[in-house]
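Hi support team,

I'm filing this because I wasn't sure whether my run with zinc ion finished correctly. The job status page said complete, but I'd like someone to confirm that the output block is well-formed before I use it downstream. Pasting the exact inputs I used:
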Amino acid sequence: MTTWDVTELPNEKCPQCGAEYKVKYKSLPLKDKDKFVCSCGNTLREWKETGMYMYEAINK
Ligand SMILES: [Zn+2]
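And here is everything the job wrote out:
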């Protein structure tokens, strides 16, 4: 039985278009290689680690 921990991280703002995202980090049993690209095309984060980042757009 594995419980995957989800950590809430500070919100991030895209420096290019100003969109705000709620960020969560989730531990994974395997290495994840991925990235998050803003809807404007700007790469906000790239990672290669045993976890993943989840971005959720904050609508204002
Ligand atoms: Zn953007």
